[in-house]
Design goal:
Number of strands of chain B: 14
Distance between the termini of chain A: 22 Å
Number of helices of chain A: 10
Low-confidence stretches of chain B: none
Helix content of chain A: over 70%
Number of domains of chain B: 2
Mean pLDDT of chain A: 82
Radius of gyration of chain A: 19 Å
CATH superfamily of the largest domain in chain B: P-loop containing nucleotide triphosphate hydrolases
Mean pLDDT of chain B: 90
Distance between the termini of chain B: 29 Å
CATH class of the largest domain in chain B: Alpha Beta
Low-confidence stretches of chain A: 73-82
Helix content of chain B: 25-40%
Number of strands of chain A: 0
Strand content of chain A: under 5%
Radius of gyration of chain B: 22 Å
Largest interface: A-B, 25 and 32 residues
Oligomer: heterodimer
Order of helices and strands of chain A: HHHHHHHHHH
Chain lengths: 239, 296
Amino acid sequence: MLWMKNWMETRWRFLSAVAVFSFVVISSYLQSANAPRPNLIPVEQRLGVTLSTFALFFVMQAVLLAGSGIKTQAPFRVGKGLHGSMHFTLSLPVSRLRLLATRTGMGALELFMAVLLGVTGLVLLLPRQFPEMTFLVLDAVEYAFTVFACLIACFCVSVVLATFLDDVWQMWASLILLGAVRGLAGVVNIPEKFDPFRALGSASPFMTHTIPWGAVAVCLTLAAAMWLLAARIVQTRDY
Amino acid sequence: MEWVIETQDLRKTFGKQSAVDGLNLRVPRGSIYGFLGKNGAGKTTTIELLLNIVRPSGGRASVFGIPVTDLARSTEIRQRVGFVSEDKGLYPYMTVGQMIRFTRPFFPGWRDDLERRYLELFNLPLKKKVGDLSKGMGSKLMLLLAVARGADLLILDEPTDGLDPAAVEEVLRELVSLAALNGTTIFFSSHQLPEVEQIAEHVCIIDRGKAVVAGALDELKAQYQRIQVVVDRELDEPVRWVDGVVKVRQEGRMFSLLVSRNVEAILAQIRSLPGASTEQFPVSLKEIFLESVRTN
């Protein structure tokens, strides 16, 4: 039943995330038919920029889908001192760990679906935008895996924030934090093979035809650490 | 006597602010227990401590003999407890029917008979979204979800809040019958003192996180009395009342005393006053409450 609750709680987020991404893909698809092709910039560079731009949308999806933790209601929605449905949820004979696990499980599942749909859209869009390049199905599968692995880290950072922030603050705090990390990554020299941002853009499997295992390992490790931190917070904090 | 809820020197602080400050509480099995206090006295925090929603800063609390801090067994406590929260928050995106279907599987002892009875009694529309219910209907749904769990203990935080007088009467009647027929222990907080007086067997008045009065309501009402004294001439000096006088109001030669104990000694002292005549009156829970939280 918790899965049903989590789906009902997040379905509009999921559908909105998919709708926004679909809109971007479709409008890019339609525009690419008429747009004059810039030929001064190398195609690999243009593809890298395009993939990095789409990666931003993917990150926003991850942040959005990580919301609705235990503490969900924004204060302005329920009034000072009120807790919305949180106390009812916490009064159920379910451990906080299980609440977190089902919530993140549903979010991860939705993220997986969003990534699958998104990458499918890209597979349709990219050959039209970059006719001079060849896009293999295997590259798309590897790209989907890479995107999902990198996004799970963003998702879990956001899950940690959702353990103590309401939905509105969680989303803003996640975006600011991830933006700061992105900015920092531009300044600090991260070894290329461990750089998740490159893995989603200029060093994606569409370019390298291989999974960037270093970056994937970094992201999965970060995701696991963040989830354990979220579990620790959820089990010890007051609500 | 078997205690369903027991706290010893229970404490909870938020930063530097103390919400519960050495609370000692014992709720007998099968009783209806009224938990009273002003706003901010620590009632809701105590309830949150009992349900492990917040963690104690000190002291001990147990429900069904299980320490509330025992994480491994805390679900066992919640399996046997029906809860109505102060703000009656449920999932606004679910319908009444979905809310019931969602809650039912968590409780193996779910009472279909009580579910049907309360649906009918409260006239709850199964297909209406919880978010579209009035405050009163929301309270009724929450009561249904708490009662139909088949719980051994109901913890109700302002359960009649938002209900019309007729619905309040219905709810109070149901609570009494649950305690009488099923042996359910009912621990409820309320600002509505007449309601508490109507159904509670035991009460605890809490002020600034401490229990200031606790006991069986009948005993408390027998202990507390108002004694009216009239003396036949003005007294030369103010009376130094013996222990047990909670409050004295004087108008000329007439004294109105609220006493909490030691009645015989107080009556003896009154008899020593010149030409004193006395009359004793029972006091209401409201008077006990107001004097307890004022003097404290």
